[in-house]
Amino acid sequence: MTSFADLQLAMPIQRALTEEGYTTPTPIQAGAIPYLLQGRDLLGLAQTGTGKTAAFALPALHRLLTHPRPLTPKSARVLVLAPTRELAAQIDDSFKNYARHMKLRHAVIFGGVGQGRQVEAMRRGVDVLTAAPGRLLDLIGQGHIDLHDLEVLVLDEADRMLDMGFVRDIKRIVALLPKSRQTVLFSATMPKAIEDLAHSLLHDPAKVEVTPPSSTVDRIRQGVMFVKSEDKRAATLLLVKNPKVQRAVVFTLMKHEANKVADFLNAEGIRSEAIHGNKSQGARERAMAGFRDGSVKVLVATDIAARGIDVDDVSHVFNYDLPNVAESYVHRIGRTARAGRDGWAVSLCDAEQRAWLRDIEKLIGKAIPVVTDHAYHSEEAQNSTMRPPVLGGGGRGRNQPRGGGQRSGGGGRPGSGSRGGNEGGRPSGGRPGGNNRPQGSRPSRPRSK
Ligand code: AMP
């Protein structure tokens, strides 16, 4: 497996990655970064949650470090176009994070807020500009931005930009860029319109695709329990207390929820550890060692953190939250039933996540058996037709834009309009401390619908 050291990124970048707790490149990173470091154009087929931001950000930063150049007023060396302001802000945050040991001027531009600070941020020029197309064109039109010496253009979530009607804006922006540049296009899907756009923008591109898995292993017995969100902790306790559970991984969407679930289970006497991107590498390694040697029974993990879980005898996977990306379900439950063993995967589904369950069932091509004989069954969740929450930037897995640090450019931070974009998006379920103790019996084997 490729390591970040193999990719030979400049040291300040490698240091930032180590501090972020990134140990191995994700498949899209391992595939794309070497081409981008060579200066090739690239067509990347990858969804949110695959690590695609770092796949284009790290080589861009490497280039800035290895080819320093004074900035020209109003200009940018790297331009990332993104469909929404939330995504633009998150990309900008990622650049800031990965560039924490280098000097980087960066700005983020999007509509819906005053333009004054954005214009000011661009006045002296920036290394990296992340922008939504509409406002960018406005500011170019007003003479505040001049992209004639751009070196790298990235189109992120190109299919979404097309869906949102940005194709003409993109073409107008591209017409203002120098011909000799590196162009990178990421898209989750490849409809004809994206193919055409790629063909018109990219020169002899390398293609990197991360194919989402779509089938589940038959040896994994699956079940879903419909519950109210406030009963999820108690239901999780009920599940992990089952004596058949030897080692379990519990998945949450949010890092803070992972911490809370682990604290709750520990308070209930079940030895648990949370692992997620905010934990130091040392803490993660200790948690994994405990999980392997059996002293830790439950690992509570977010999707990305779970990449590092390579333990053969996970007897159960519990989805405290369903993933909003259906393929992640397949990844998650694939943590059990390894090495020829059987495994269990039980998901808790509340009213908000009901629609995600339908997506998952569509992907795996079968209905997941429903378990109803437990104390927390909720008809309301089962029959919910609620629209699922819109996650910031289009995806879970894009964990928590990091606040705090000084931004060298850009306008005000957009309101992170959803629970996906921050850690505090939703009131937590359950009441740690025991008054949620399940009354019911142990879950029995899932029954078919
Ligand atoms: P993205 O698909 O770019 O939205 O990334 C999804 C999440 O994965 C973000 O929270 C990143 O911080 C995290 N991430 C990206 N690459 C890695 C990696 N190699 N190891 C661990 N986490 C990563």
From TrEMBL:
Biased composition (Gly residues): 391-433
GO terms for MF: helicase activity
Domain Helicase ATP-binding: 33-208
Residues covered by the DEAD-box RNA helicase Q domain: 2-30
Motif (Q motif): 2-30
Entry protein name: DEAD/DEAH box family ATP-dependent RNA helicase
Alphabetical UniProt keywords: ATP-binding, Helicase, Hydrolase, Nucleotide-binding
Stretches with biased composition (Low complexity): 434-443
A Pfam family assignment: Helicase_C
Region (Disordered): 378-449
Domain of life of the source: Bacteria
Lineage of source species: Bacteria, Pseudomonadati, Pseudomonadota, Alphaproteobacteria, Acetobacterales
Family: Belongs to the DEAD box helicase family.
InterPro entries: DEAD/DEAH_box_helicase_dom, DEAD/DEAH_RhlB, DEAD_box_RNA_helicase, Helicase_ATP-bd, Helicase_C-like, P-loop_NTPase, RNA-helicase_DEAD-box_CS, RNA_helicase_DEAD_Q_motif
Domain Helicase C-terminal residue range list: 219-382
